[in-house]
């Protein structure tokens, strides 16, 4: 079967460099400016939400007993999950020598970094007194107490901070040869100076590249277990408690699959407009989109299988609270429509990707990717809110209602994410130039043989 | 541990194939202090100039072990010894609960160590290097391939080496370094190497 190539055309290295670096020099058109405006307004809403939370306390949020984990944890889990596809693309696919990862890996990795930043805000704000967040670290405090390492909260802190730092270091290491190219191609002295500082004086010496290649592989190797461990640890926040619908051993793989699922959807959501706006159809081809769609389909099935298994385990356990949770509370209780939305968006709609035509239609790809993101947010909502709304004691049952502060922070993180992403597109070569040239070199060799 | 070339001669090549062939040829004729500058990593060039596989992994490994051991010790000491807290009847020293943080710290410190060692071994950051003064070197990150021969090389001879680089297909040959070795220095070195050989 003829597949689309991962690289179209035969530009020279110089032409390719100019194409991929020029995104940082060209002035932005109106669309970019509108994008910035929207992103800044969103960021503003985030900071207003944070200010209200810090000034008046956590009571500004909709969570209360029994639903003590509302939007804060929903959004945390959702954003962390989105990050996972970036690491999957940049690390796991590198180790498996998947050539198609090359032109989208930096892009996906940036998405990871910015998504973790959004995610990390929520648990800190959720503390209620975020200025004491440093108590999570085992430092010799005058109070004479230590963090409780048998709780999932320090695990989360360790996992998220490691995940962010390792992703940042991996991303920056990959960027160095391209920053050197930026320095050498910069049109003005100021730009040359700034990119020069970030390039650290990298010359592309073979004696550096010799270590560089190994370190890059090493970082990929280190990031790979993070893809599995971070969301496994996040899922333990739930799995080690006794709330109906949470206390389940399937949670770690279920969460990891969901994370990669939503992350691939987010990559599609971002890559489709960027590819068209910057005319990158020659380096981000239909092959990339097709493969991303296939990954969405695969992970959709893993998630669907987990849903089925959750229902089966609830029934098989014979535990009446579990049975009530899955067969009454979720499909027919308060917010049941979110449960059905989750099922439709995550299990039904991605099935269109069985069809080649759907995988090759930009409009279908983009809308399905949006719906998957909605569906995955709904899944976090269902897990967190439904379990807490209807736990063991009917007299304690209540319904969760988010407040305007919840919404302004949630929508605000989207704005802030967009802002960081646009700044990244504006100032950083977002298609890894050195790697694409290396790939082109390899491909030209394969053609000869 | 800076390994960049300070002085010598540098030839520019247009294709990776040419520079790899040139490096092989020079190596065959006895050159030992070669350095390539390329827009992307070329494994064959590293081999051609006589560089083996990097051992950076071995340098990182102790950091991974130390971080894991340190993280576990901190958890054991704080929760198991200094301030035992009965949470849900679990033992104060609960190895399974200490696994996540131990693992994460091992990954974190390995990644940081790998990058710091990479920077040190590559001599970075170093915003200015003599090679940047070579005319046309700004293309080394774009589409040109530079092969430098150090004047410390036993086989180095300013005219002959330049000639050889041109013969091997270098599109241009330039001196490298602000203070190329004087003829007197070269003669002295020649005498010394001859003395060593005899």
What does this structure look like?
With 449 residues, chain A is mostly helical. Chain A has one domain (25-129, 154-448). Chain A has 15 helices and no strands. The two termini of chain B are 31 Å apart. Residues 1-5 of chain B have low confidence and may be disordered. At the A-B interface, helix 1, helix 5, helix 7 and helix 15 of A face strand 2, helix 2, helix 3 and helix 4 of B.
What's the topology here?
The complex is a heterodimer of chains A (449) and B (198).
Chain A: H1 13-21, H2 30-56, H3 71-95, H4 105-126, H5 152-185, H6 189-199, H7 206-239, H8 251-277, H9 286-317, H10 320-332, H11 336-348, H12 356-359, H13 362-389, H14 404-427, H15 433-448
Chain B: E1 8-13, H1 16-28, E2 34-37, H2 43-48, H3 56-82, H4 95-121, E3 145-150, H5 158-167, E4 172-176, H6 183-197
Antiparallel strand pairs in B: 1-3, 1-4, 2-3
Helix pairs in contact in B: 3-4
Task: Detail the poorly predicted runs of chain B.
Answer: 1-5
Strand tally of chain A: 0
Uncertain spans of chain A: none
Number of domains of chain B: 2
Q: Which structural class is indicated by helix and strand composition of chain A?
A: mainly alpha
Helix content of chain B: 40-55%
Helical fraction of chain A:
over 70%
Termini distance of chain A? 21 Å
**H/E order of the elements of chain B?**
EHEHHHEHEH
Overall average pLDDT of chain B: 83
Share in β-strands of chain B: 5-15%
Number of helices of chain B: 6
């Amino acid at each position: 079967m003829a597949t689309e190539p991962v690289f179209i055309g035969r530009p020279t290295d110089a032409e390719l460099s100019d194409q991929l670096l020029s995104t940082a020099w060209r002035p932005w058109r109106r669309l970019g400016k509108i994008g910035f405006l929207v992103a800044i307004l969103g960021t503003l809403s985030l900071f207003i939400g944070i200010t209200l939370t810090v000034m008046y306390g956590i009571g500004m949020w909709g969570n209360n007993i029994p639903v003590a984990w509302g939007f804060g944890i929903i959004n945390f889990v959702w954003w962390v999950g989105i990050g996972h596809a970036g690491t999957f693309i940049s690390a796991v696919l590198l180790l498996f020598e998947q050539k198609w990862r090359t032109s989208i890996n930096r892009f996906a990795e940036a998405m990871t970094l910015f998504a973790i930043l959004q995610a990390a805000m929520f648990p800190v704000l959720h503390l209620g007194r975020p200025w004491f967040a440093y108590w999570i670290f085992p430092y010799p405090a005058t109070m004479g107490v230590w963090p409780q390492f048998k709780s999932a909260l320090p695990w989360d802190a360790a996992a998220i901070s490691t995940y962010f730092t390792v992703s940042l270091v991996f991303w920056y290491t990959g960027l160095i040869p391209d920053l050197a190219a930026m320095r050498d191609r910069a049109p003005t002295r100021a730009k040359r100076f700034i990119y020069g500082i970030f390039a650290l004086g990298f010359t592309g010496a073979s004696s550096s590249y010799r270590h560089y290649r190994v370190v890059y592989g090493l970082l990929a190797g280190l990031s790979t277990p993070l893809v599995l461990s971070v969301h496994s640890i996040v899922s333990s926040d739930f799995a080690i408690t006794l709330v109906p619908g949470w206390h389940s051993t399937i949670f770690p793989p279920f969460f990891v699959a969901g994370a990669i699922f939503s992350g691939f959807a987010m990559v599609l959501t971002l890559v489709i407009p960027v590819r068209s706006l910057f005319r990158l159809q020659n380096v981000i081809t239909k092959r990339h989109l097709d493969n991303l769609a296939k990954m969405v389909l695969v992970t959709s099935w893993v998630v669907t299988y987990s849903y089925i298994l959750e229902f089966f385990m609830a029934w098989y356990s014979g535990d009446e609270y579990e049975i009530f949770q899955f067969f009454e509370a979720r499909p027919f209780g308060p917010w049941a429509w979110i449960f059905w939305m989750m099922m439709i968006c995550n299990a039904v709609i991605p099935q269109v990707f069985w069809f080649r035509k759907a995988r090759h239609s930009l409009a279908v790809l983009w809308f399905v990717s949006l719906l998957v993101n909605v569906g995955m947010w709904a899944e976090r909502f269902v897990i967190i809110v439904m379990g807490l709304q209807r736990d063991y004691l009917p007299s304690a049952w209540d319904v969760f209602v988010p407040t305007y502060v919840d919404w302004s922070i949630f929508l605000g993180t989207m704005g802030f994410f967009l802002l960081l992403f646009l700044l990244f597109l504006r100032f950083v070569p977002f298609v890894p130039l050195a790697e694409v040239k290396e790939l082109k070199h390899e491909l030209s060799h394969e053609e000869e043989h | 541990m800076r390994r960049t070339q300070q002085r010598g001669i540098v030839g520019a090549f247009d294709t990776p194939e040419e520079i790899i062939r040139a490096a092989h040829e020079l190596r065959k004729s006895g050159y030992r202090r070669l350095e390539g500058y390329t827009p992307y990593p070329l494994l064959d060039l590293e081999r051609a100039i006589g560089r083996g596989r990097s051992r950076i992994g071995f340098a990182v490994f102790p950091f991974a072990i130390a971080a894991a051991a340190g993280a576990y010790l901190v958890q054991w000491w704080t929760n198991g010894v200094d301030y035992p807290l009965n949470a849900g009847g679990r033992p104060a020293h609960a190895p399974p609960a200490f696994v996540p943080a131990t693992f994460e710290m091992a990954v974190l410190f390995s990644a940081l160590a790998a990058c710091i060692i990479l920077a040190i071994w590559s001599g970075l950051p170093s915003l200015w290097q003599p090679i940047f003064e070579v005319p046309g070197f700004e293309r080394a990150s774009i589409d040109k391939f530079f092969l430098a021969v150090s004047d410390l090389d036993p086989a180095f001879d300013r005219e002959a080496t330049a000639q050889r680089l041109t013969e091997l297909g270098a599109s241009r040959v330039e001196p490298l370094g602000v203070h190329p070795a004087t003829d007197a220095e070269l003669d002295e070195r020649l005498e010394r190497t001859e003395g060593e050989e005899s």
